[in-house]
Amino acid sequence: MPKISIIMPLYNASKYLKETLQSVQQQTFTDYELICINDASTDDTAEILCRFQIEDARIQILTNAERHGAAYSRNRGMKEAKGEYLAFLDGDDVFDEEMFEKAYHAAVESQADIVMYEFLHVPSDTVFIKRKVFHSEQYRDRYCRKVFSLQEYAPYECLNWGLGPWSKLYKRDLIEQNQLWFQDLSCSNDLYFVCMALMLSKRLLLLDDTRIMVYVRDHDEPDRISSNRDPMCSYLAFLQIAEELVKRNIFSELSAHFYYFLLRAVRCALLQCRTEEKARTFYQFFQKEGIHNIVAAGGDCESLDTYQKEQLEQFINKDFDSGWFKEESGLRMPLNCQRHAEVVIQMFQEYRNAGKAVGIWGAGANGISLLEFCQENDLSVEMLIDQSKEKQGRWMCGHLVRRPEEIKGRLQVVVAATRNIFESVTQELSGQDIEVVDMNQVLWIY
């Protein structure tokens, strides 16, 4: 029996399928089966799979006579799986060659139900460029060196774990004992599976490795399974999650985490809508019916923190045209936490005591939240910087938004307000004697 069953749903995946299959075959861990479910593809997917299968007996091909979608295909793959652990990969991504070796050994050593690892969305033309992330010793001690459950930590601590199925290795016993399956939805069909697995697991672990393990290829092929996302699917997923948690009599102990996952998923669904009309229609439904249906199904809003209650109130009381959900800051939650706030205050004070001038890079929602926090706590910020020409020259919170060229000779430290700009800021300031700080990492140390 194989140690890992890899389940890969495929629909018209021929454009990138060879690269993905080669990426799996290049894994240093070899004791796996690769179950490929061809969901009635009309391109060369079947031919490519057959060619690979001839040379690799670990590849098993299942074919759907009619197109059913990724959820049906993954569920069919799970029924056939024989491995001790399950992994769910897509046919257009690539993976670090040690992904399964590191994840499997970490799972066995710690007896983890789920091992999570780093992923990154990247443009197709950079998918093979290796990347790393930084994790402090405090972060590693908290998440990577011992197993834990969600209940042990505050909901916002799940910020960077991701709700995609492809960045995790699951113990099959956890999935089968809890009867977890993928929902039959046109998109977001993995939300129920992943959220329930995370909330039910008592032994979660983050892989203690700085390498990006999954490179999620961002592209917009016409036949891509998730090319036309319906935000209603996110709502339906969380309605079922709420009902299931109540049925299992565990909603009250997980309500804060549930509402955190819900609010994040709904905002993401709105932002991913292709048209404003689709986003508006869903927003109005969620405002008038959706929120109330979910609260009625689960109840227990008393345990929510101030931030979560404020989010719910904004959905209920603000109309779509206010656009508040587009600019909502991901930093507000951790900055409102005393432990995180003390870390940030100490950092800025140490720079001030050392005579170092600090600037904030990013004049979006996160940057403004950080700047407001600094002003409230009498922390010195010399400059607000942004690459957007639309923002440059505007006044925000008493600061004129500056161009990157204006930094030289004026700052010794630049704080990148969001994770996705840290790398570009570092490259932009390469060769200059300026320390670049990733605010995301600062807020996740203890």
Structure characterization notes:
This protein has 446 residues and is of the alpha/beta class. It folds into three domains: 4-182 and 203-218, Spore Coat Polysaccharide Biosynthesis Protein SpsA, Chain A; 232-328, no CATH class; 334-442, NAD(P)-binding Rossmann-like Domain (Rossmann fold, 3-Layer(aba) Sandwich). The chain is 42% helix and 15% strand. It is built from 16 helices and 16 strands. The protein has helices at residues 14-25, 45-55, 70-80, 99-110, 137-143, 172-177, 191-200, 232-247, 251-271, 276-298, 306-317, 332-335, 338-353, 365-376, 419-428, 439-442; strands at residues 4-10, 32-38, 59-63, 85-88, 94-95, 114-116, 119-123, 168-171, 204-206, 214-218, 358-361, 383-385, 395-396, 399-402, 413-416, 435-438. The strands form three sheets. A seven-stranded mixed beta sheet has the order 3-2-1-4-8-6-9, sandwiched between helices. Strands 13-14-12-11-15-16 form a six-stranded mixed beta sheet. Helix 14 links the parallel strand 11 (358-361) and strand 12 (383-385). Helix 1 runs parallel beside helix 2. The relative contact order is 0.09.
